[in-house]
Design a protein that fits this description.
By secondary structure, the protein is mostly helical. The protein contains 17 helices and no strands.
Length: about 425
C-alpha cells in the first residue's frame, strides 16, 4: 500500500472510531442518572461497577480478538467490532431492569473492542514513527468523543423529557455507520516503509511487558475519577448544572485535542520514558488539586493540568508500544495493550466504587493519587538508571520494564511476555510481513 493511501486511511479510521465511541465514552458519566431515573435504583456504588462491566469483558476478550485479527484479517475484525457495539447499544436502549442493562454493558465489552481493532488495522498501513503518530491520532478521536459526547449528551438529557436510557437506541446508529465506512477501507497488508528509514528506526526503549504495566498504572489513575466526577462537582459546587459538569469532565480531553499534534513532534527529541516521569508527576499534582479545589476556577486549572499530563503520557506510551509492533503481530500486541488498559480501568472502577461508597465522592481522587506514587517511583528509577545514548542498556534482570539482553533477544520466538502476550520484538529490516 502506498504512503499516500496510508495517509488517507487514517482519517477514515478516526472518523469511524469517533462515531462508534460517542455513546460508549459519553454515557458512563451519566450512569447515575440512568440508574435513578430509568432503572429506579438508588445504589450509588453501582455507577462505578457498571462502568467496569464493559471494561472487564473487553480486558478478557481483547487478546482473543487480537489473535483472530492476525489470523483472519484486521479489516474483518474491525467491522465485527463495530457491529457488536451496535447490537449491545440496542439491548441497553431497551433495558427495563438493572440486570438487563448490566448484560448489555457486558456485551459491549465482549463484542466491541473498536479501539484495539482500529489500531491493529492501522499497523497494516503504517509502522514505526508513522504508526506512533497514527496511534496519537486514534487517541485524538477518543478524546474528541470524550469532549463532545458528555457535553452533548448532558444537554440532551437536560432537555429531554423521556427516560435517559433511551438515548442508547439512537446511539446504536453510529457504530452501524462506522461499520459501513470500514467496509470501504482497503484490506491492508504490510506497512509501507519509506526507503532508507528502516535502518534509522530506533530500537525499543522498553519491553512490551513494561509498556503494558505502565499503561495499567496510568489508566488506573486517570479512570478512577471518571464515574464520580459529575456527581462530585455538583455536590461541592452548588448550582452547577449537568451540562456544566459534562463540560468540566471533558476539559482534560480538550487539552489533548489542542496539544497532541505539536507535542507528538516535540516528543521525538528525547526518551519517551522520561516523558512518562513528567506526565505521572503532573497527573499526581492535578489529582491532589482536584480533591481540595475550593472554587470552580481552581478546579478548571487542575483539569487543565490533568489534560497536559494525559497528553504527555499517552503520546509517550504510543511511541513505546509502536516500537515493538509490526504488521504480523499487531493484533496480538494491540490486543494485550488494550487489555492492560482495560484491566487498569476495571481495577479503578471497582476500587473507586468502594471508596466513594465508604468515604464519599472525594475519595476516588485520593485513591488515584495514592496509586500513582509507587508507579511514579518505579518509573523514575527506570528512567534514571538508563545509561546515556549509545551505551549498553540495562539487562532484563534490572527491571520489569527492561528489554531482553542481546543473547535472548536474538531469538524472538523463544521468548514471551509475562502476561501471556507474545514477545513484541521488532523485526529485522526486510523481514517485516
Amino acid at each position: 500500500m502506498s504512503a499516500a493511501t496510508s495517509r488517507a486511511v487514517v482519517p477514515a479510521v478516526m472518523a469511524g472510531h469517533f462515531a462508534a465511541s460517542f455513546a460508549a465514552l459519553g454515557m458512563p458519566p451519566f450512569f447515575g442518572l440512568v440508574l435513578e431515573q430509568s432503572l429506579h435504583n438508588d445504589a450509588r456504588f453501582l455507577a462505578g461497577w457498571l462502568y467496569v462491566l464493559p471494561t472487564l469483558f473487553a480486558a478478557l476478550s481483547s487478546p482473543w480478538w487480537g489473535r483472530l485479527a492476525d489470523r483472519y484479517g484486521k479489516k474483518r475484525l474491525l467491522i465485527r467490532a463495530q457491529l457488536g457495539l451496535a447490537a449491545s447499544f440496542l439491548l441497553a436502549g431497551f433495558a427495563t431492569s438493572t440486570w438487563t442493562f448490566a448484560a448489555a454493558l457486558a456485551l459491549q465489552g465482549l463484542l466491541g473492542g473498536t479501539f484495539a481493532a482500529s489500531n491493529a488495522y492501522l499497523a497494516t498501513v503504517a509502522s514505526g514513527p508513522a504508526l506512533a503518530r497514527s496511534l496519537t491520532a486514534m487517541q485524538w478521536s477518543a478524546r474528541a468523543a470524550l469532549v463532545a459526547a458528555p457535553a452533548a449528551l448532558g444537554l440532551l438529557l437536560q432537555a429531554k423529557g423521556s427516560s435517559p436510557i433511551e438515548v442508547y437506541r439512537w446511539m446504536a446508529l453510529l457504530p452501524l455507520l462506522a461499520a459501513g465506512l470500514a467496509a470501504f477501507l482497503p484490506a491492508g497488508g504490510a506497512a509501507h516503509r519509506a526507503p532508507g528509514r528502516a535502518a534509522a528506526t530506533s530500537a525499543p526503549e522498553l519491553s512490551a511487558r513494561g509498556v503494558y504495566l505502565l499503561q495499567f498504572g496510568f489508566v488506573f489513575s486517570t479512570v478512577s475519577t471518571f464515574p464520580y466526577f459529575a456527581a462530585h462537582v455538583q455536590q461541592h459546587f452548588a448550582g452547577m448544572s449537568t451540562a456544566a459538569a459534562g463540560l468540566l469532565f471533558g476539559l482534560p480531553h480538550a487539552v489533548y485535542l489542542v496539544a497532541a499534534w505539536p507535542l507528538t513532534r516535540w516528543s521525538t527529541r528525547g526518551r519517551r520514558s522520561r516523558w512518562l516521569v513528567v506526565s505521572f508527576a503532573a497527573l499526581l499534582a492535578s489529582l491532589l488539586g482536584q480533591a481540595v479545589a475550593a472554587s470552580p476556577l481552581s478546579l478548571i486549572a487542575c483539569r487543565l493540568l490533568m489534560g497536559a499530563a494525559m497528553t504527555m503520557g499517552f503520546i509517550a506510551l504510543h511511541g513505546l508500544i509502536a516500537a515493538t509492533v509490526h504488521a504480523g503481530n499487531a493484533g496480538r500486541s494491540f490486543g494485550w495493550f488494550e487489555s492492560s488498559s482495560k484491566w487498569g480501568a476495571v481495577a479503578a472502577g471497582l476500587a473507586a466504587g468502594l471508596a466513594a461508597q465508604s468515604w464519599g465522592l472525594r475519595a476516588p481522587f485520593w485513591l488515584a493519587a495514592a496509586a500513582l506514587i509507587p508507579a511514579l517511583a518505579g518509573l523514575a528509577v527506570v528512567a534514571l538508571r538508563r545509561l546515556p545514548s549509545g551505551s549498553a542498556l540495562p539487562t532484563a534482570s534490572s527491571s520489569p520494564f527492561s528489554l531482553p539482553s542481546s543473547s535472548s533477544s536474538s531469538s524472538p520466538s523463544s521468548s514471551s511476555d509475562s502476561m501471556g502476550a507474545p514477545a513484541c520484538t521488532r523485526p529485522t529490516p526486510g523481514t517485516q510481513s
